[in-house]
């Protein structure tokens, strides 16, 4: 992946900050016990090698945060920054489809980010611990709880900015989409780090090894969460493939509708969750066509009244299908109502105005616009200008007028 200028500048700034912070820490703190330094470094490498990639493979989660917390308490900022940065530098996780990922087969910019981010997070945690009254190799409740929260916030902030800048997406949406679900788990892992530190202070090296079990259990809970998200994505893809097999037009149509609907949702300042629900609904909005006979679905000529009444059942059929999938419950109403009209003459329930979920109204505009601007067996596509005029013509009757205005402005701004 080629880095854009903003990402390069961000990496440069982080690198300068990390180097400056490490020099400050190195000049003001010491590691007197080399064996402790070696022990925690190897432990950090081992734990970081348990990395679990998120579904988009752009970021992973690990239980290494426990080592961040523990090293801050038992050794201070220098031990924490050194051991944890070496941990991420030399880790070698096994990732499905890619094999072992390590320093020598990772892009240089990712390696750089991982190291400087680790130095900054651990260094900031270490300084925060000492400056809130914490003592090295001694447990203090408030400073310890403070660094657990600070570490998670700083860590997720650095990662979200990096991913947001490199992908050109909103930093907030990046945090919500990639990090939010792991936030509480990170706090829990940090708590295990506190326990590990207490075990080391009281009983030494052997006690730390005993707590590898709870750390592996925390990793297992992480993996269950990631597997659930993977299952969610796989289910959506499988359902979409089923529609494609039924109606070849649907594949490209669904992808285009998704892009248009998500764009309109963002332009309408909807919440992240609503945008993601629209994204999923756009892909699945025609899933109900599975229940429509092929001779009707693929008819080249104009449909009869009876045939059109059958076609009108597809939103209800689609809602019934995905309504049985628990994690698609928020999408069901969008699919069911994406053919409701603003004046109440739509189907299946004849909703009107504000009764129609805004997500469904957005999906209807995107669906209609793409249908008008795409060639079909029974007619040629309209030009963009002609389609816009149709939206204006039926604004306030078929379509929500505010959304039409926003959509037209969005389309006109596209090249």
What does this structure look like?
With 415 residues, the protein is mostly helical. The protein has 2 domains: 5-230, Arp2/3 complex 21 kDa subunit ARPC3 (Orthogonal Bundle); 247-413, Hypothetical protein af1432. The chain is built from 19 helices and 4 strands. The strands form 2 sheets. It has a two-stranded antiparallel sheet. Strand 1 (52-53) and strand 2 form a beta hairpin. Helix 2 (34-48) packs across helix 4 (77-89), helix 8 (183-203) runs antiparallel to helix 10 (212-246) and helix 12 packs across helix 16 (329-336). The chain is elongated, with a radius of gyration of 27 Å.
Itemize the secondary structure elements and their pairings.
Elements (H helix, E strand, L loop, with lengths): L4 H24 L5 H15 L3 E2 L6 E2 L3 H11 L1 H13 L4 E2 L3 E2 L7 H24 L9 H27 L3 H9 L3 H21 L1 H6 L1 H35 L2 H19 L4 H13 L9 H4 L7 H7 L2 H9 L6 H8 L21 H15 L11 H10 L7 H13 L2
Helix pairs in contact: 1-5, 1-6, 2-4, 3-4, 3-5, 3-6, 3-8, 4-5, 5-6, 6-7, 6-8, 8-10, 11-12, 11-17, 12-16, 12-17, 15-16, 16-17
